Amino acid sequence: MDSQDNNPSEARRARGRPRDWSDKTAQNTIKSLDRAMEVFEFLSEHQGKALTTLAAETGQSPATVYRILVTLEGRGLVEFDPMEQLWHIGSRAFIIGSRFLRRTSLVERARPVMRRLMEETGETANLGIERGGQVLFVSQVETEATIRAFFPPGTLSPMHASGIGKALLAEMDDARLQRALAGKELTAFTPHSITNLAALRADLTQIRARGYAVDAEERNIGMRCIAAPVFDIHHEAVAGISVSGPTSRVGLDDIDRLSRAVRTAAQDLSATLGA
After folding, report:
1. What CATH number belongs to 3-95?
2. Class for domain 104-272, per CATH?
């Protein structure tokens, strides 16, 4: 009989994670892999970079960055344009990222709800979740109007300057909210951005009371967004759904009408998740 059969705890460890899994100190990190991921993430945010530029902006030597890029290229994660002498994110990165979306049925279940929301309001419908203290947009159904908001899947946005972000923050208890905002700078993207913690907390209180959030040109001048939280079977806010569009179409007088449509969409999607 295997020795692990005599010790259930050892068997559980063998199938799960190591005893020191929570230890994130230097001894448990692979420095070369960490440097490679830094380059990879930087390139994903700043497409089309020359080798020397990448090295300078990531603070690594050109030789090191070149070895990283060639390795990632071999896996299809980055691509090199020989004509322009520039490096870009590769198609394999999209494939791997798409697998994240398949971890949950949220995106699949949200599509018909988002399409109805877009058709009812005439504005772009968005779906976002919280990841790493930011809003990660995971799906979008675009309006056919010529002027429209564009948040492709994978886009990250600061929570304090996002309709979905504020809708999710408003549903957090005090302890979680403090952790979410700890060390975060409330950056001013426009003159309308909320940069004061007390003002943000006051806005979150109003959002929770009325059931929807408004991004009133807080991220981009000329764009307004209305969002509501989506709940799961445990009544936890797991996502946010919104409509966004130019202020010429999403005016102050339209907020009441649009917020009703967004809240209904959020309730419908929550129901499919068991809420």
Report:
1. 1.10.10.10
2. alpha beta
